[in-house]
Write a structure and sequence with these properties.
The complex is a heterodimer of chains A (about 400) and B (about 210).
Chain A: H1 3-11, E1 21-23, H2 28-35, H3 42-47, H4 53-59, H5 62-83, E2 87-91, E3 96-99, E4 107-110, E5 115-121, E6 127-134, H6 139-148, H7 150-171, E7 176-181, H8 185-190, H9 195-204, H10 206-228, E8 234-238, E9 242-243, E10 246-247, H11 251-271, E11 275-280, H12 288-294, E12 298-301, H13 310-317, E13 322-327, H14 332-335, H15 338-352, E14 358-362, H16 371-384
Parallel strand pairs in A: 1-2, 1-14, 2-7, 7-8, 8-11, 11-12, 12-13, 13-14
Antiparallel strand pairs in A: 3-4, 4-5, 5-6, 9-10
Chain B: H1 2-14, H2 18-30, H3 36-55, H4 61-78, E1 92-98, H5 106-117, E2 120-124, H6 131-141, E3 145-149, H7 156-168, E4 176-180, H8 186-192, E5 196-198, H9 201-210
Parallel strand pairs in B: 1-2, 1-3, 3-4, 4-5
Helix pairs in contact in B: 1-2, 1-3, 2-4, 3-4, 5-9, 6-7
The chains are: A alpha/beta (about 400), B alpha/beta (about 210).
Chain lengths: ~400, ~210
């Protein structure tokens, strides 16, 4: 059984030869450590003396961005393959660099939806970006931004399609690049406005909130089509619907405003003969039944630090959802001992892998995750994940 | 009438009814026998209930945030009408910020809202705050507590650095340290020697309240 058959078999709730292992690697720090490369830090370029007009013009050319970005993601996949993963997620995004003197670095990234991403450096000198706010705090600003980027929204799905097709071509014989359409409709709706502003809209101007959601649903379906065009049997969608202690919004409210949107996304994926795995950070225990109802086929992440426990989730949803995760990335895969990693893997498999429907994975990705610990996770996965499972 | 209006204002806020809340606030200001201070107390009582509902899992983040938005709007109307005597007793000063390398603002803003409504004087250092800036603020404001927010594991080292700096300067007897945010856990708080970890803004406010005198 090859990596792809193993992964797809598990998503279909059947027992493969062993539990598949998937990566969520998206940061260059981890990739570079695995591949023995020096990170290319954009901060170094930005810190250089002199005008940056040429740099901005170059980076903000979609062709240059797309080529640079696909090389970065290729490194992620190369690293994932080297670690022995069966699959790794692959997200297309397009960012544009803007000067912003109010920030420490003097530059920020903007995305087409109206988010601002600040650039900073972690303790190891890796550049990282954070969502820092939105450019669309009012109805007028939101409409103006969507109008301004109208042409971009037309071509984004084409860029995404080319990106996912290219990854399939480059890596299809070594690892399964699972295409991920991100960000989702919920995040695209609130983040460009701000959470307080968007929440106020839900209560005070529900019609406009629905207009925003409908706009992003339409765009998201085109994005998802582009991912599916790469020939995927399994795709990822996602929205961070949870925070540390529970859902961001009352589940009934999520259903009221976003339920139809999510049903459309799931239906589109199913029409194309694929399965939809949903990513959400945070504590989403209270949303699991809704996920099943909307037609999601699985979930990926399940953060232990947000009280997500894969065995409990399996008990709660049975085999209505395939589960991918949930090894801790706050301690275990940063500085846990080999015994701790082995024990966590054994426990996750025992709790969720019976009958298939489970893929072993880190709960998320960040630059401090230690490749050695990831290697231990893979080795333990191969040791404890052989079917039939030993009880 | 006073009791009725206080209850109506509280209920309007708990119903998340922005228009009704502001309407009752105007009624407070228009009535001779009522004071802005009574309206403020009523709003504080409502927010206390909102916080409990959130902690108990009956309410969700959106409701917590929207209640805070309505309360802020009401306070913007009431504040000019408050006299110097109306100022709520200051329970103490709290310095808060999101640690360097992390720009997340939402959780910190919710905490600030609730801590202020609970009577704390909150100094907001903003986001992406270097450890040294936390130390300077602790020296300058001599707070009861310093709160650090961190949602990104790669930035978590900075939280430990603040604890080290405050400890090295021998300021721990005067200032307690509390941490929160997606990358923070009780185990991490224990590891770096913070006084407390709070899983949410309301619990954080409760913990700091427990440190008052």
């Amino acid at each position: 059984m090859n990596f792809k058959e193993r992964f797809v078999t598990a998503i279909n709730h059947k027992e493969a030869d062993r539990v598949p292992i998937m990566g969520l690697i998206v940061d260059t720090a981890t990739s570079c450590k695995v591949l023995g490369k020096q990170p290319a830090n954009i901060l170094d370029l930005l810190k250089e003396e002199g005008p940056k007009d040429d740099l901005l013009a170059m980076l903000n050319t979609p062709e240059v961005w797309n080529q640079t970005y696909i090389d970065i993601v290729s490194d992620n996949l190369e690293a994932a393959a080297k670690l022995g993963y069966d699959a790794n997620w692959a997200i297309y995004t397009l960012l544009q660099l803007h000067e912003d003197k109010s920030t420490k670095v003097g530059f920020v990234w903007h995305d087409p939806y109206g988010r601002v991403w600040e650039i900073s450096e972690d303790n190891n000198g890796n550049s990282i970006i954070n969502y820092a706010g939105g450019l669309c705090g009012t109805k007028e600003k939101w409409r103006a931004k969507m109008e301004e980027n109208k042409a971009l929204f037309e071509v984004l799905p084409d860029y995404a399609r080319e990106f996912h097709c290219a990854l399939q071509q480059r890596f299809g014989d070594r690892i399964y690049p699972v295409g991920y359409a991100a960000p989702g409709v919920f995040e695209n709706s609130w983040q460009p406005m701000g959470f307080a502003e968007f929440t106020s809209l839900l209560y005070q101007d529900a019609d406009f909130a629905r207009e925003i959601i409908a706009f992003h649903t339409e765009h998201y379906l085109r994005h998802m089509d582009a991912v599916l065009d790469a020939g995927a049997e399994v795709v990822l969608g996602g929205d961070d619907l949870g925070q540390k202690t529970g859902p961001m919004l009352r589940p009934a409210m999520i259903e009221e405003f976003f339920g139809e949107s999510y049903r459309k996304v799931a239906a589109r994926v199913h029409e194309r003969g694929a399965k939809l795995i949903w990513h959400s950070c945070g504590n989403i225990n209270a949303l699991l039944e809704l996920f099943v109802d909307w037609g999601f086929d699985g979930i990926i992440t399940m953060e232990p630090t947000a009280q997500m426990d894969v065995a409990q989730v399996r008990q709660q949803v049975g085999h209505n959802l395939a589960l991918i995760g949930n090894l801790d990335v706050s301690h275990l895969l940063v500085k846990g001992t080999r015994e701790e990693v082995e024990q966590a893997v054994e426990q996750a498999i025992a709790g969720a892998a019976e009958g298939g429907g489970f893929v072993l994975s880190a709960a998320h990705s960040h630059s401090l995750i230690d490749p050695q610990r990831l290697q231990w996770m893979v080795e333990a996965g191969k040791k404890y994940g052989k079917y039939p499972l030993v009880r | 009438m006073a009791h009725d209006l206080k209850e109506k204002l509280k209920e309007a806020l708990l119903d998340l009814n922005n228009d009704a809340t502001l309407d009752y606030v105007q009624q407070f200001l228009a009535a001779d026998e009522m004071t802005a201070k009574q309206a403020v107390d009523s709003i504080a009582e409502a927010l206390e209930i909102v916080g409990r509902r959130f902690q108990e899992g009956d309410w969700f983040l959106g409701e917590l945030v929207y209640a805070g938005t309505i309360a802020k709007e009401a306070m913007d109307v009431l504040t000019p009408a408050l006299t110097a005597d109306d100022a709520r007793a200051n329970c103490g000063t709290v310095v808060v910020g999101t640690i360097e390398g992390d720009m997340h603002d939402l959780g910190k803003s919710i905490f600030i809202n609730y801590a202020r409504s609970a009577g704390f004087d909150v100094i907001d250092l903003g986001v992406d705050v270097p450890a040294e800036t936390f130390l300077e603020a602790v020296n300058e404001h001599e707070p009861l507590a310093v709160g650090m927010c961190c949602l990104l594991t790669p930035a978590a080292g900075g939280v430990g650095r603040v604890v080290e700096l405050i400890t090295e300067r021998d300021l721990r007897a005067r200032t307690k340290i509390i941490i929160g945010g997606a990358a923070m856990t009780q185990a991490f708080a224990d590891e770096i020697g913070a006084d407390a970890y709070a899983p949410d803004a309301v619990t954080g406010t409760d913990i700091i309240r427990g440190w008052v005198g």
